Amino acid sequence: MIVLDNTPGASIPGPATCTPWVVVVLAGELDFAASHALDVLDVAVRAHPGAHILVDLSDVTFLDHTALFAFALAKSRAEAQGGVLSLHGASVFALKLLEIWHLEPASSEPPVGGDAA
User: Fold this and answer.
1) Would you call 108 exposed, middle or buried from its count of C-beta atoms within 10 A (0-12, 13-18, 19+)?
2) Which of 9, 62, 69, 71 gets the most CB atoms within 10 Å of its CB?
3) pTM here?
4) Whole-angstrom Cα distance, residue 31 to residue 67?
């Protein structure tokens, strides 16, 4: 799991009014056993009020209600602070769960531009 502040001017899609960009890359199984790892979302939102938090799910192999709750909480907090939380790169399985929880991702494709590694 990596948290990166993206450099200004990167070509990641999203509203131009939200700055700075914060990219959170999650990988592996996001379940109750990994709940401590999901704290990074809360940290990113609280540390960057008004930012666009982009969560890259491209390397996530499994997620359960623990991850969904963390996404919902982070999204709510980001919006309350004038920011945005968007999910990118979700698998077909994850897309169905995100849809049920009304957390539709901005895209099922990984972010374009702005190297996150």
Assistant:
1) middle
2) 71
3) 0.72
4) 6
Would you say how long the chain is, in residues?
117
> What angle do helix axes 92-100 and 65-80 make, rounded to 10 degrees?
60
- Separation CA 28–CA 12 (nearest Å): 23
Does residue 51 sit in helix, strand or coil?
coil
Please give the Cα distance from 42 to 52 (Å, whole number): 13
| Calpha distance 75→91 (Å, rounded) | 19
- What domains can you pick out in the chain, each with its CATH number? 2-7+20-100 (3.30.750.24)
Amino acid letter for position 105: P
Is residue 25 scored above 80 in pLDDT?
A: yes
Instruction: Write out the two tokens for 68.
Output: 């969904």
The pLDDT value given to residue 106: 59
Place of tokens 């056993």: 33
